[in-house]
């Protein structure tokens, strides 16, 4: 009789431990199988894990835009401009001449479209798109292959070495 009580006791402990392990492993799961992520993280289906919020967003499931005047990763940066000029992802609106090489747009948020590159996207790559960097132009010494169906007319350097572009054509149409 003593051995029977001993076996039941062990079975009860095994059942209780198994229940505890299973209940804690499912605690953070959503009904769809994804995980409930901590604040400042969101479930990424493609990576099958919690990933940090995209720039400009915070909160549970990253569904809250940065409040003004905050912006950027984790809303850690602060706009030093008028609230109407502050974007929750990119910060203060700028003129395109303030953008770093290879960037354009009101917030310098866009890369230069191929074949353009450089400061204010004023230069043209003379290589295929996969070898053209938006900031620095052609890399690895590549200059062979068709550039694009875009042609440039009346391009000249002034006395300071800066390029000026008076007109461009794509498929024979002026831009």
UniProtKB/TrEMBL annotation:
GO terms for molecular function: scavenger receptor activity. Keywords: EGF-like domain, Signal. Residues 1-23 form the signal peptide. This is Protein draper-like isoform X5. It comes from Crassostrea virginica. The lineage of its organism: Eukaryota, Metazoa, Spiralia, Lophotrochozoa, Mollusca.
